[in-house]
Specification:
- By secondary structure, this protein is an alpha+beta fold.
- α1 (2-19) packs across α2 and α2 (28-64) runs antiparallel to α3 (71-95).
- It is globular.
- It is built from 8 helices and 11 strands.
């Protein structure tokens, strides 16, 4: 571990030296990569420096134990510094855990109504609002790519692009089936129904990682379908892209510009293809491994929102919070933090790496 930490400290110095060179500021992607790597390395190298300092104080305190004039003081210092070393050692173990290489990426978030018909669609709309408000709290930019609504304002399906620092690292735990228990807005009988919506969280793929042959694409244009009125699109600006080898279809009709719609649709297509490849590799590498917290398995029921009791339960970690209104207003951090901590504990149990 010591050797690994020394290597990281040397790497941090090299990054700081490179970032002090004015020439690097002319290369925006390189600058962004260097700054991100430095940001990742800083906590671990600072923790190691603190540990080295505490280790030096421990040695000094032990050397004073034999001096009658300082023994009592040395014993107090030794107890404090040993506790500090234990804390720092645990902190370093956590910081050395392998990072998800996609954590820094932007996100394509896809919502689909599940069981429950119109009520499932209304709940998908509620989730879209929750994620929109969460993105606002985090300072992220949320952009709707495609939105297919029902007559009552529910969401049959939609794709949104979320851009911002750490978007994937926080939203990745949302993948799966979200269940709602409430008296439907569409029913006056007062009986509680269970409906569901599915959430898929895809890391946005860059152009380099997912090259697409233009010959593999069938691109169709059509008129946007909307609620009508003065904003109905008179031109064929909506885009439908079919990736012929996989049969994947992506639509975008949010923008009035055909070019912008095509650009957004390509981002979604790239991310879906990237995710397909990622899942294939993960399955090949660990076919027999049990799925862990945050695995992103879309088939698993991850959370239940119970309106009559005002509670939200995350089934993966058995967490129940009686804060339904706040959570639906975007206060998701308590749940996300608990899921991240559980994933960390799982990695530590498995040896970390």
């Amino acid at each position: 571990m010591q050797e690994k930490l020394k290597e990281l400290a040397v790497r941090r110095e090299a990054l700081e030296a490179e970032l002090s060179d004015p020439a690097v500021y002319g290369d925006a992607p390189r600058l962004r990569d260097l700054q991100r790597e430095l940001k990742e390395l800083t906590p671990i190298t600072e923790a190691w420096q603190a540990w080295a300092d505490a280790e030096r104080r421990r040695t000094e305190a032990e050397s004073l134990l034999h001096d009658p004039d300082f023994r009592e003081l040395a014993q107090e210092e030794l107890a404090a510094v040993r506790a500090e070393l234990d804390t720092l050692q645990e902190q370093i173990r956590v910081l050395l855990l392998p990072k998800d290489p996609n954590d820094h990426r932007n996100v394509i978030l896809e919502l689909r109504s599940g069981v429950g018909g119109e009520e499932g669609a209304l709940f998908a709309g509620t989730l879209l609002r929750m994620y929109t408000m969460y993105a606002q709290r985090q300072g992220w930019k949320l952009d709707i790519v495609n939105l297919n609504e029902t007559e009552l304002g529910g969401v049959k399906e939609c794709s949104v692009l979320v851009e911002g620092e750490g978007a994937y690292s926080r939203l990745k735990y949302e993948s799966g089936v979200h269940r709602v228990q409430r008296v439907p807005e569409t029913e006056s009988g007062g009986r509680i129904h269970t409906s569901a919506a599915t959430v898929a969280v895809l890391p946005e793929a860059g152009d380099v990682e997912c090259e697409i042959d233009p010959k593999d694409l069938q691109i169709d244009t059509y008129r946007s379908s909307g609620a009508g009125g003065q904003h109905v699109n008179k031109t064929e600006s909506a885009i439908r892209i079919t990736h012929l080898p996989t049969g994947l279809v992506v639509e975008c009709q949010d923008e009035r510009s055909q070019y912008k719609n095509k650009d957004k649709a390509m981002k979604v297509l790239r991310s879906r293809l990237y995710e397909m490849e990622r899942e294939k590799q993960a399955a090949a590498a660990a076919s027999e491994r049990k799925s862990q917290v945050g695995s992103g398995d879309r088939s698993e029921r991850v959370r239940t929102y119970n309106f009559p009791q005002g509670r939200v339960t995350d089934h993966r970690i058995g967490l129940t919070l009686y804060k339904l209104d706040a959570i639906l207003d975007g206060a998701l951090d308590e749940i996300v933090d608990a899921l991240a901590t559980a994933e960390q504990a799982e990695k530590l149990k498995g040896g970390g790496g």
